[in-house]
Amino acid sequence: MLVTGRDIINLWVARMIMTGIAFADGLPFTDVYINSTIQAADGRRMSKSLGTGVDPLDLIDQYGADATRYGLLKMCSTQDVRFAEGMIDEGRGLANKLWNASRLVLLNADPEALPTPNGLEAVDRWILDRLAQTIDDVTAGYEDFQFSAATKTLYAFIWNEFCDWYLEAIKARLYGDDVASKRAASETALFVIERTLGLLHPMCPFVTEELWSFLPARTGLLAWSEFPTTDGIPRDASAATTVAAVIQAVTGVRRLRQDAELSPRAELVATITGDADAVRGESALLAALGAIQLVETAAAGPAVPLPAGAATLHIQGDGLAGKLRDRLAKRREEALAEHKKAEAKLGNAKFVERAPAEVVEEERERSERFARDAAELEAQLAALDAG
Amino acid sequence: MDRRAELEERTRYEAAEVEGRVFAGWAEANVFTADPSAPGEPYCIALPPPNVTGSLHMGHALNGAVQDLLIRWRRMQGRNVLWQAGTDHAGIATQMVVERGLAAEGKTRHDLGRDAFIERVWAWKEATGSTIIEQYKRLGASMDYSRERFTMDDDYALAVQDVFVELHSRGYIYRDNYLVNWSVPLATAISDLEVEHKDVNDALYEVAYAVEGGGEITIATVRPVTILADVAIAVHPDDPRYAAMLGKFAIVPMVGRKIPIIADERVEIEFGTGALKITPGHDPIDFEIGKDHGLEALSAIGLDGKLTDLMPEWEGLTADEGHERAVEHLRESGALREETPYRHSVGFCQRSGARIEPLISLQWFCRMDELAKPAIDVVKSREVRFHPERMEKIYLDWMEQIRPGASRASCGGAIACRFGLPPTARMSCRLSAQRARVGSSRPTCSIPGSRRRCGRTPRSAGPSRRPSLRSGTRATCSLRVATSSTSGLRG
Q1: B397: number of Cβ within 10 Å
Q2: What are residue B250's phi and psi, to 5 degrees?
Q3: Residue A173 sits at the chain B interface (C-beta within 8 Å)
Q4: By the 8 A CB rule, do B36 and B44 touch?
Q5: Contact map slice: B 245-264 vs A, CB within 8 A
Q6: Cis omega before residue B388 (within 30°)?
Q7: Dihedral pair phi/psi, residue B45, rounded to 5°
């Protein structure tokens, strides 16, 4: 394996192959990966004399080595790339997130629990399924030199699926009295952390090695441990589908609360229709993540429909439908007013003639955008009335 | 403190506190140290060695992050990995750093003499040469630092010599004169990459040459002193002004030498007078034209920057003094017809700031045909794969273009860069040193056309340390030639 820059192909690469064949009876390498050239953020060449260089050691001081590596790997592509410090900052954010998540699990887990794939609940089976998929995707990314894709896969898994969903879902179980449930959540969370540290180690060796040292029953250094495989990880497609439906519903409910200006914990109830059994079985998860109680019969008055996979939730409570209706109607009025204002300007011949073309174009885009918003809000109102 | 209590206190990830400690833990456990006898399929990457004078820049950091990702991943997968660490001697760059240090003491390398200067370079390398390697450690690079190599290590240099000798014995290597970018203060040829072009105000001199049998022909030049080394005057074959003069001889002013008037399509009819003085010893285009017409290359200025004996009474003058004398001489003899201000682009030596002298010097060449062919085949057959795949085209285009005939770029350049100093001097010195080791007389260096003599003794002792290209120790003895096959370590 050789990893080098494009300008080295005619120098080192060519000469190593020629001399390897001629004098060492073989090839010096079988794969040559040509890494991107990193340009300054404005597209100029990075150079000390031009003052466009960024010193990687400064980045390491400021963000940490893991963050610097993560950011650079995320920038990697098959083209030349512009330096984006935000990607390095994202790496620092990820290291912190992983630290906090691991700390939460390690400090609150059942002290007897060891990293084990325990699929007691659907959400446990779901995170294990997602972990297995992530292992496959990251391994394929490393295999195919798709480093940027691998950073994105790991980021999404750690930040969204593990921290935002799984840890939120199991917090109550970790703090609760149900011994078996706490044990299962502890074992699975520890297992996911253990495997994730392995997956991330080649990118971010420091934070992963440090966290590894806190895992129960670990042996030796992470740098020398086995790279995670999917062996022994149960795959459960139906749990994955069910939890995905719950996540869809909870995401919808959170947005609904914002739209109707309700507090995140305001009590909401829902009836369920459609292919409802699987989601109904996860009523505790819906309650934990979305603060929604499933009920058998709807109260009088309108309900807001929300998709949850193959099922539909009909949400009520706290005057939700009325508040939502008012809010949506108000926003529709605002959008229509803005649209009219823009149209009036565009109808003014003086403005269209005298204003710079890009200003006119901007106004036209504004007008269209508000018209679209108004139409969408109209559709939401119609759906609300139908539900 | 127990681990749990420790974790409770550490409410956030403190990279600066963690990194040094974790790295020391890896080093202590020898995680990075390769063991050829260990189980597992070998997986090997050789770090493209950074300049020993260098400091980690963004390119190194990205390149290092990618390599470390691959190495750590494969290590965890149970492969027997080696990430070979090393630095490149960076020839001129290193010399400049050491010379700056000497200048601070009010000395030059000539005050020290060759041997003492080289000792000084080694001392500098030992003292500060690991800066960039330490910086790779900050990045977390899991290279085998215990195997760190330097491209002037004895084994390494000997492997290069071995290859050179082998190339020579196979008949690939030969020497020939070539026009190079010569830096007089550095006394070395420098690469095109190290030449900086700047616009300069000079004068353009129109000079008339008498034509044998009557008439005259006027050329334009910014460097009248190079007239001393003219070997022809070229005109465009379709230029009616000079049609009658083709095949006749012109008389070179100042020296009175007879030179042919020739036709060549590369002459621009519109430029100047349309007649071009051909001075292969001092101009790259003239060098090409001279070669094609079988003309000799004369040198008015030598590698020391002083005038040669083409004009015996001026021998030893500097090029600038020679310029003054030549203008004066041409003016007095009436050959100088016109002098006009002229702004043009001139090459300067990036490191010393001196104006580049294009000069003839004896260069090493290597015939590439037979070496390139199998190297093209292995890429076409995908035994060697490029990622991304389109990079393959850059490789193949270049390799196919260097195939026909001889290429200066490939062997001479590589070896010159390996030895850091002018290829001619160092090469012969090393070669004769090796001959001595093999068991003949004391190493001496004698290069045709060079006044250099060198009696440098090889740094390492004993034939036992001499690496054989056919032994099973490739991975340990050379970064460039091979980190592969015979030891089984292959990337």
Answers
A1: 12
A2: -105, 160
A3: no
A4: no
A5: none
A6: yes
A7: -130, 130
Q: How many Å from the N-terminal Cα to the C-terminal Cα in chain A? A: 61
A27 chain-B contacts, CB cut-off 8 A: 378, 383-384, 484-485, 490
CB-CB under 8 Å, A30 with B384: yes
Determine contact: A8 vs chain B, CB below 8 A: yes
A166 touches chain B (CB under 8 A): no
Residue B187 pLDDT class (50, 70, 90 cuts): confident
Distance from CA of B191 to the nearest CA of A (A): 13
Q: pTM of whole model > 0.80?
A: no
pLDDT reading at A254 higher than 80: yes
Rounded to the nearest 10°, the torsion over CA A182, A188, A193, A194 is: 120
Among B66, B386, B397, the residue to mutate for chain A (most A Cβ within 10 A): B66
CA-to-CA separations, B408 to A165, A359, B2, B296, in angstroms, rounded: 63, 59, 66, 20
**Contact criterion met (CB < 8 Å) for B139 and A56:** yes
**C-beta atoms of B482 and A65 within 8 A:** no
Residue B10 confidence (pLDDT): 96
Pick the residue from chain A with its C-alpha nearest to B368: A18
ipTM of the complex: 0.89
Instruction: Check A60 against B8: CB less than 8 A apart.
Output: no
SS3 at position B149: strand
Residue B160 burial (C-beta neighbours within 10 Å; 0-12, 13-18, 19+) = buried
Quickly tell me which residue has 């809010």 as its tokens: A327
Partner-chain contact A99 B72, CB within 8 Å: no
Residue B210 β-bridge partners: B216, B251
Confidence class for position B249, pLDDT limits 50, 70, 90? very high
pLDDT score at B108: 84
The pLDDT tens digits of the residues spanning B118-137 come to 888 888 888 877 789 999 99
Tokens 């512009």 -> residue:
A82
Q: Give the distance from residue A125's alpha carbon to the nearest chain B alpha carbon, in angstroms.
A: 26
Residues written for chain B: 491
Return the SS3 of B197: strand
- Give the tokens for residue A348: 């003014």
List of residues 6+ apart from A365 with CB closer than 8 A: none
Higher pLDDT, A264 or B358: B358
Interface of B with A in 125-164 (CB under 8 A): 135, 138-140, 142, 162-163
**Bridge partner list, B276:** B234
C-alpha dist (Å) from residue B328 to B202, B229, B322, B333: 16, 18, 10, 9
pLDDT at A387: 60
Token digits for A12? Answer: 């080192």
- B427-472: pLDDT as tens digits: 333 333 333 333 333 222 222 333 233 333 333 333 333 333 332 2
Q: What is the 3-state secondary structure (H, E, C) of A232-298?
A: CCCCCHHHHHHHHHHHHHHHHHHHHHHHCCCCCCCCEEEEEEECCHHHHCCHHHHHHHHCEEECCCC
Distance CA B346, CA B355 (A): 7
- Give the count of Cβ contacts less than 8 A between chain A and B: 276
Nearest to B385 among A30, A63, A209 (CB): A30
Neighbours of B482 (CB within 10 A): 28
Least CA distance to A30: which residue of chain B?
B384
Least confident residue range of A195-199, A314-318, B309-313: A314-318
Contact yes or no for B387 and A32 at CB 8 A? yes
In the numeric block, which tokens belong to residue B239?
A: 């230029």
CA distance B114 to B457: 12
Beta-bridge mates of residue A81: A38
The minimum CA-CA distance between A362 and chain B, rounded to whole Å, is 39
pLDDT score for B1: 59
Judged by CB atoms closer than 8 Å, whether chains meet at A23 and B469 is answered as yes
